[in-house]
Amino acid sequence: MPEFDIKDKKNNPVGKINLPEDVFGVSVKNGVIHNAVVNFLANQRQGTHATKTKGLVRGGGKKPWKQKHTGRARAGSSRSPLWRGGGTIFGPQPRDYSYALPKKAKKLALRAVLSGKFADGEITVIDELKLDKPRTKEIISILQSLDLEGKSTLIILPEYNESVLLSARNIPGVTVRRAADLNSYDVAAHSRLLMTRQAVEMLSEAGKNE
Questions:
Q1: How many Cα neighbours within 13 Å face the side chain of 78?
Q2: Labelling 141: which of 61, 102, 173, 200 has CA 20 to 30 A away?
């Protein structure tokens, strides 16, 4: 198992942790990652887009003119798509874009993208990250110490911490996630990962139990 340095909030080494190869040493498979990312984005779509057809546009109930002997083309409604103010032909309608992806494929994609981050040296492990109360300046100070300021960073915590979440949400490019809620898109969308020791251990245990 490869060893990884654990830092404190001041970027001083405080120990090492073993990273399991079945989670952080998987060969990167771009196709698997691509499928997982596309699936995640599709499942986020609301699908509430809608346009009105001629049957939904207000008005048009009266026939504009009689059927014959006017010299004009037949017309049954002033809300025909051919008329100004008429309906839309084949416009988008509400639909569900979500679809299921096998759990094994999602887990493999997550491991592959984590392995890619580890291989590229884009993971920082900190001993712990806790705040007694929301304080954005403290999170910024920690990011500065760890050389992560100004970089899109995904902070991965072992459990929900409202103070950290509220402190980091106003920092551009910084996102907070629980280890249990981690997905391939969040990892791939950020250039750096900041993980606590306990979060790494949770991911490692999840890999062993499968």
A1: 10
A2: 200
What region does 129 belong to: left with phi over 0, alpha with psi -120 to 50, or beta?
beta
60, 66, 67, 90 from 75: Cα distances, Å? 10, 8, 7, 20
Helix (H, G, I), strand (E, B) or coil at 142: helix
* Domain boundaries along the sequence of the chain: 3-29+102-208, 46-96
pTM reported for the whole predicted model? 0.81
Per residue in 153-184, pLDDT (tens digit) is 999 999 988 999 999 998 999 999 999 999 99
CA triple 206-207-210, angle to 5 deg: 90
Q: Cα separations (Å) of 28 from 93, 115, 119?
A: 38, 7, 10
3-state SS class at 30: helix
Tell me, which fold does domain 3-29+102-208 have in CATH? Ribosomal Protein L4; Chain: A; (3.40.1370)
Three state DSSP letters for 176-191: EEEHHHCCHHHHHHCC
Residue with tokens 């073993």: 18
